[in-house]
C-alpha cells in the first residue's frame, strides 16, 4: 500500500514532466519553423536563374539550359508571405514538407528520408565509437594522470580536439585512397553490388563507411576524453570516493562509483550529439561524397530550394528537441538524486 | 553483454545464410567503362525521366535525342545522327523532314517510331521554350507535327522563323510513347491547336491546361528505364549510376563496353582523387591546381584531350555607375590588364588568353570575321595608352593613385562568387596589376553563385565576372552582351529596352551607340540574328564585334579550351584533339564507334 502510494505521485510527476517537455518541444518546433520559414524566404537569389547559369558553367548551351530550367518557375512559391506561411503550416500539420525545387517533383520527406540513412550510419557509428573510446580513455587518463600513459592520452585528446574535422578527413583521404589506395574515396556503396542482404553489398557498405566513421570518431574523440578526464578528476576528489576507499571497498566497486558519477554530464552531451546527427556532418559528407543530411542542407541552400531547406531545418530542430527530452528523461533514470528530487 | 553476444551471433548467421551470392554481377568481356557526367550530379531520388533536370537519364547512354550537336565554331545546325538517321530542311527553313533509324528499338524490344517522337514533342510543349513554345509568335516555334510513316515525321515552322529551328528540333529528347504517352490527355493535340491558333480566353485556357501538365511530366517516375540508347539504367545509388548494354540498340556493334559506371561527385577534389587513382576512363575538365595536374598526368594511361569550347570569361561593367559609364575608363582598364598573365594564373590548362574583346571566342571570331578580326583593337598591355584614356575620362592622378574627376579616390571593386576558384584567382591577378598601375582595386566575394547573380542583376556591383561567347549560335553569343542583362527584352513579341537597374538590366549600357560613324542598336541587331539569313548574320556579327571592341561593355579575359581527361589503360579510340565530338558524352563517342576495349 505504502509502495503504491509512493509510486503514484512519482508516476504522475514523470507524466507531468514528459507532458511539459512535449508541449515546450512543440512550441519550440513551431517557433523555429516560423523563424526559418521567414529567413529562408528572405535569402536573396533567384533559384531558377542560379540553376540556368550553373548549367551554362557546366558547358550546356543556352537553349539546353533554358529547356532544363524554364519549367522550374512553376515550382517556386507564389502569393504573399503570409499566404505561403499559412499553406506551409497547414501542410506541416499533415507532415507534408512540400516538394523540392532542386530535385523537381520529388517530395522533401522522401529526399530527407533517403539522405538520413546515409547520415545515421557514419555519424551514429562515429559518435558512439568516439564516446566509448573517449570515455574509457578519459578514465584511464584521469587515473594515470601522473604517469606517461595519462600524459599521452591527454595529449592525444588535445591534439585531435584541435584539428578541424576536414583536415582529418582530407589527410585520411590522401593516405588511404591515393597514397595507399586500400579504401574507396567516395560514395556510400559500390553500385556494382545488388542492394540487399548479401555479403558483397554489406561488405561494400562497411568498406565505404570506414573512412567517414574513422574521421568522425577521431574528430570527436578528443572532446570526450578531455571532458571525461576532467570529470573523473573532479569526482576523484569527492568525499564519497575517499569514504569508499577508507571502507576498504573493492577497486572495481570504487571504479564503478567513479565512472557512474563522472559520466553523468557526458550522457546529456551524448544524447544531444545524437539529436544533432540529423544535421549531418557537412565536411565529412562533402569530403567522402557521402550523401547525408548535411550535404542535402548545403545543396538546398546553394540552390535556394526553399522547401528542402525548411524541411531539413525542421528535421534538425525536431532531432534536437527530442534529444533534449530523452536526455532529461535519461538523466532522471540514471541519476537517483534527480529522481528523489522529483518525488519530493 | 549476453545481449550483445546474441546480436553478434545473429548477424553472423544472417551473413552466413546470405553467402550464396556475392551480389556482384559479371561485367562481361567489354568491361565497365567508368566516367563522370559533367552536366549533372547523380541524384538517386530523382526519377528515370529526361524531363526532370536531375533525372537518372544520361545523354548518350540511356538518354537519346534525335541528333547530337557537333562542336562547330559557327554553325549551330551541324549534328551527328542519333535516333534521327537523316533529315532535310527546306531552304527557307519552313519545313523539316526527319527520318528515324529503321532498326531503332527500345530496351524492351519495341520499335522506336514516329509516334514516339510525336509524343516526345507533345511532352516538350508542356515544358515550354525553344521550338516548342506555345506562343505562335515566338521565334522558331513549330507549327505542325505530322507523322508521315512509322519512321518519318514532318515538322513545320511557324511564321516567325528562326535560323536555329532545325537545331532545336534535332535536340528533341525522345521517350517511349508506350511509357510516357499516358501523360498527355486524349485531346492534347486539339488543346495545343487551340493554344497556338485560337484567340482570347479559350487560347489562354488551353495554354494554361498544357503548361499545367508540366509538374506531372517532370515528376513522372517510370518503374524501370526504357531506353533507346546504347545503355539502359540498371541501378543508381547516391554514389554512382550503373548502366548495362541495351541489346536492342540500333548500332550495337559499335559499342565497346558492356557496362558504364557514372560516378557522382560533390566537389572537384573527388574528381582529382578518382583521376589520381586511375579510376576514370574519362572525366570532363575541372579546375585543377598545377601540382594536382602533374600527379594526374603521372598516372599510367592518363591523357588530356583538348578542343574548341565556345565560351569565354569576361570582366563586365555596370555602365549605369560612375566612372564605368565612360568608355575611356573601360578602355583604360583594358589596356592595363595583362590577359596572358591572368589566364596563366587562373586557367592555365582550360583557357587561352583572349586575343581581344569581340564578344566571341577567338576561334569562332576568326571564322565569322575573317580579316576584319585583325582590324579590331587588341588592347595589348599599354600603360601609356591607359593613362591617356583615363585623362580623356577626366580622371586625375593624386600622388601615385588615380582619382575620380571630382577628386574623390577611385576604388575598383571586382566581384566574384566565392565558389569559383579560377575567377577568384583571375580577380586577384587583375587587382594586383591595377594596383601596380596606381588604381586602388580589391576583390569582393559573394557567398555563392546564386547570391552573386542576384546581386549582379540588382545592379549592386560596379564590376563583376561574366560568362560570355556562348556559341555557336550567334544570337546566343551576343545575347549575353546585348540581351536582358543589358536592358533588351521581348514584351509581347516586341523588343524593348528597359532603363538600367530595372528588369535585370545591370549592364546599363546605352540603347544605341555610334560605331564607325553609324548609329546602331546592338540589342535590335542581336535579336535580328535569330532570323537573319547567313549573309546578313555575318554582317551583323561583324558590326556587333566592332561595337563590343569599341564600347567594351566587358573586357574579354580568356577563351575556354575544352579539356577532357581520358585513361587509355583499359579503353582506346578516344576522340582526337579538336574533334567535333569532344563536347559530347562518352556515350555519344561510343555511338560514333570510338571507344574500344584495349586488347591484352
From TrEMBL, chain A:
Ranges for domain ABC transmembrane type-1: 116-331
GO cellular component terms listed in the entry, alphabetical order: plasma membrane
Chief localisation class: membrane
UniProt-listed Gene3D superfamilies: MetI-like
Entry membrane topology: Multi-pass membrane protein
InterPro entries: MetI-like (IPR000515), MetI-like_sf (IPR035906)
CDD domains recorded: TM_PBP2
Localization per Swiss-Prot or TrEMBL: Cell membrane; Membrane
Residue ranges of the TM segments: 21-40, 120-143, 163-183, 263-284, 306-331
Superkingdom of the organism of origin: Bacteria
Database matches in Pfam families: BPD_transp_1 (PF00528)
GO biological process, one term: transmembrane transport
Keywords: Membrane, Transmembrane, Transmembrane helix, Transport
Tagged with keyword Transmembrane helix: yes
Record-stated family: Belongs to the binding-protein-dependent transport system permease family.
PANTHER family per UniProt: OLIGOPEPTIDE TRANSPORT SYSTEM PERMEASE PROTEIN (PTHR43376:SF1)
Protein name, per record: Peptide ABC transporter permease
Lineage: Bacteria, Bacillati, Actinomycetota, Actinomycetes, Streptosporangiales
TrEMBL record, chain B:
Alphabetical list of PROSITE patterns matching this protein: PROKAR_LIPOPROTEIN
Compartments, record wording: Cell envelope
Keyword Signal annotated: yes
Signal peptide segment: 1-18
Transmembrane segments: none
Gene Ontology MF terms in the entry: peptide transmembrane transporter activity
Biological processes, Gene Ontology terms: peptide transport
Domain Solute-binding protein family: 79-487
SUPFAM superfamilies, A to Z: Periplasmic binding protein-like II (SSF53850)
Alphabetic keyword roster: Signal, Transport
InterPro entries with a match to the protein in the record: SBP_5 (IPR039424), SBP_5_dom (IPR000914)
Name of this chain's protein: Solute-binding protein family 5 domain-containing protein
Native source species: Planotetraspora phitsanulokensis
Amino acid at each position: 500500500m505504502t509502495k503504491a502510494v509512493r509510486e503514484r505521485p512519482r508516476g504522475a510527476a514523470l507524466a507531468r514532466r514528459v507532458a511539459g517537455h512535449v508541449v515546450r518541444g512543440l512550441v519550440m518546433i513551431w517557433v523555429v519553423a516560423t523563424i526559418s520559414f521567414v529567413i529562408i524566404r528572405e535569402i536573396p537569389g533567384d533559384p531558377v536563374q542560379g540553376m540556368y547559369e550553373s548549367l551554362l558553367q557546366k558547358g550546356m548551351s543556352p537553349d539546353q539550359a533554358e529547356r532544363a530550367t524554364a519549367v522550374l518557375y512553376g515550382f517556386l512559391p507564389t502569393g504573399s508571405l503570409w499566404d505561403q506561411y499559412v499553406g506551409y503550416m497547414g501542410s506541416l500539420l499533415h507532415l507534408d514538407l512540400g516538394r523540392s525545387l532542386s530535385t523537381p517533383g520529388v517530395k522533401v520527406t522522401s529526399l530527407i528520408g533517403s539522405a538520413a540513412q546515409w547520415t545515421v550510419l557514419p555519424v551514429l557509428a562515429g559518435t558512439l565509437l568516439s564516446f566509448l573510446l573517449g570515455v574509457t580513455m578519459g578514465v584511464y587518463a584521469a587515473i594515470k594522470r601522473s604517469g606517461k600513459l595519462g600524459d599521452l592520452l591527454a595529449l592525444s585528446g588535445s591534439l585531435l580536439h584541435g584539428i578541424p574535422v576536414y583536415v582529418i578527413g582530407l589527410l585520411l583521404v590522401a593516405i588511404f585512397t591515393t597514397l595507399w589506395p586500400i579504401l574507396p574515396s567516395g560514395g556510400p556503396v559500390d553500385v556494382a553490388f545488388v542492394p540487399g542482404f548479401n555479403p558483397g553489398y554489406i561488405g561494400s557498405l562497411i568498406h565505404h563507411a570506414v573512412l567517414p566513421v574513422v574521421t568522425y570518431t577521431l574528430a570527436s574523440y578528443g572532446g570526450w576524453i578531455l571532458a571525461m578526464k576532467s570529470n573523473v578528476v573532479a569526482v576523484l576528489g569527492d568525499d564519497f570516493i575517499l569514504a569508499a576507499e577508507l571502507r576498504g571497498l573493492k577497486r572495481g566497486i570504487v571504479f564503478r562509483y567513479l565512472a557512474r558519477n563522472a559520466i553523468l554530464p557526458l550522457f546529456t552531451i551524448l544524447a544531444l550529439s545524437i539529436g544533432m546527427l540529423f544535421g549531418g556532418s557537412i565536411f565529412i559528407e562533402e569530403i567522402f561524397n557521402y550523401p547525408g543530411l548535411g550535404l542535402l542542407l548545403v545543396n538546398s541552400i546553394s540552390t535556394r530550394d526553399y522547401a528542402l531547406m525548411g524541411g531539413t531545418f525542421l528535421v534538425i530542430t525536431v532531432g534536437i528537441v527530442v534529444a533534449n527530452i530523452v536526455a532529461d528523461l535519461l538523466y532522471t533514470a540514471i541519476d537517483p538524486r534527480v529522481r528523489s528530487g522529483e518525488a519530493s | 553483454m549476453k545481449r550483445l553476444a546474441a546480436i553478434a551471433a545473429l548477424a553472423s548467421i544472417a551473413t552466413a545464410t546470405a553467402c550464396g551470392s556475392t551480389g556482384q554481377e559479371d561485367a562481361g568481356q567489354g568491361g565497365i567503362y567508368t566516367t563522370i557526367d559533367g552536366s549533372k550530379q547523380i541524384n538517386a531520388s530523382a526519377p528515370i525521366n529526361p524531363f526532370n533536370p536531375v533525372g537518372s537519364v544520361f545523354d548518350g547512354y540511356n538518354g537519346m535525342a534525335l541528333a547530337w550537336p557537333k562542336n562547330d565554331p559557327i554553325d549551330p545546325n551541324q549534328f551527328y545522327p542519333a535516333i534521327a538517321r537523316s533529315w532535310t530542311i527546306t531552304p527557307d527553313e519552313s519545313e523539316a523532314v526527319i527520318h528515324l533509324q529503321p532498326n531503332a528499338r527500345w530496351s524492351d524490344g519495341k520499335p522506336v517510331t514516329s509516334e514516339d517522337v510525336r509524343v516526345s514533342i507533345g511532352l516538350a510543349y508542356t515544358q515550354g521554350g525553344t521550338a516548342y513554345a506555345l506562343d505562335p509568335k515566338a521565334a522558331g516555334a513549330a507549327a505542325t507535327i505530322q507523322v508521315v510513316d512509322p519512321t518519318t515525321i514532318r515538322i513545320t515552322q511557324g511564321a516567325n522563323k528562326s535560323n536555329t529551328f532545325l537545331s532545336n528540333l534535332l535536340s528533341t529528347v525522345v521517350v517511349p510513347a508506350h511509357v510516357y504517352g499516358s501523360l498527355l490527355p486524349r485531346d492534347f493535340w486539339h488543346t495545343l491547336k487551340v493554344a497556338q491558333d485560337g484567340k482570347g480566353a479559350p487560347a489562354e485556357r488551353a495554354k494554361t491546361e498544357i503548361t499545367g501538365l508540366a509538374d506531372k511530366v517532370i515528376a513522372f517516375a517510370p518503374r524501370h528505364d526504357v531506353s533507346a540508347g546504347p545503355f539502359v539504367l540498371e541501378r543508381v545509388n547516391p554514389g554512382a549510376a550503373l548502366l548495362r548494354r541495351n541489346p536492342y540498340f540500333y548500332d550495337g556493334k559499335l559499342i565497346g563496353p558492356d557496362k558504364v559506371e557514372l560516378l557522382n561527385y560533390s566537389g572537384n577534389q573527388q574528381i582529382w582523387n578518382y583521376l589520381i587513382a586511375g579510376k576514370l576512363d574519362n572525366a570532363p575538365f575541372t579546375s585543377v591546381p598545377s601540382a594536382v595536374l602533374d600527379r594526374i598526368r603521372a598516372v599510367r594511361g592518363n591523357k588530356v584531350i583538348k578542343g574548341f569550347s565556345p565560351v569565354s570569361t569576361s570582366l563586365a561593367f555596370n555602365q549605369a555607375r560612375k566612372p564605368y559609364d565612360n568608355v575611356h575608363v573601360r578602355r583604360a582598364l583594358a589596356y592595363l590588364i595583362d590577359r596572358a598573365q591572368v589566364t596563366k594564373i587562373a586557367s592555365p590548362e582550360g583557357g587561352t588568353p583572349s586575343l581581344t574583346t569581340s564578344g566571341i571566342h577567338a576561334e569562332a571570331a576568326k571564322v565569322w570575321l575573317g580579316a576584319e578580326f585583325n582590324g579590331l583593337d587588341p588592347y595589348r598591355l599599354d600603360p601609356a595608352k591607359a593613362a591617356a584614356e583615363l585623362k580623356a575620362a577626366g580622371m586625375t592622378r593624386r600622388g601615385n593613385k588615380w582619382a575620380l574627376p571630382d577628386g574623390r579616390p577611385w576604388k575598383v571593386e571586382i566581384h566574384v562568387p566565392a565558389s569559383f576558384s579560377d575567377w577568384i584567382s583571375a580577380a586577384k591577378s587583375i587587382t594586383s596589376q591595377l594596383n601596380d598601375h596606381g588604381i586602388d582595386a580589391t576583390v569582393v566575394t559573394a557567398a555563392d553563385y546564386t547570391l552573386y547573380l542576384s546581386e549582379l542583376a540588382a545592379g549592386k556591383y560596379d564590376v563583376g565576372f561574366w560568362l560570355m561567347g556562348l556559341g555557336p549560335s550567334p544570337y546566343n553569343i551576343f545575347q549575353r552582351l546585348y540581351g536582358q542583362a543589358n536592358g533588351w527584352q521581348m514584351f509581347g513579341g516586341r523588343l524593348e529596352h528597359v532603363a538600367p537597374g530595372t528588369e535585370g538590366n545591370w549592364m546599363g549600357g546605352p540603347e544605341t551607340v555610334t560605331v564607325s560613324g553609324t548609329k546602331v542598336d546592338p540589342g535590335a541587331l542581336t535579336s535580328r540574328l535569330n532570323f537573319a539569313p547567313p549573309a546578313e548574320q555575318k554582317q551583323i556579327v561583324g558590326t556587333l564585334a566592332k561595337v563590343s571592341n569599341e564600347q567594351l561593355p566587358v573586357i574579354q579575359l580568356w577563351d575556354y579550351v575544352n579539356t577532357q581527361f581520358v585513361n587509355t589503360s583499359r579503353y582506346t579510340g578516344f576522340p582526337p584533339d579538336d574533334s567535333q565530338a569532344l563536347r559530347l558524352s562518352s556515350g555519344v563517342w561510343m555511338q560514333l564507334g570510338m571507344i574500344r576495349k584495349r586488347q591484352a
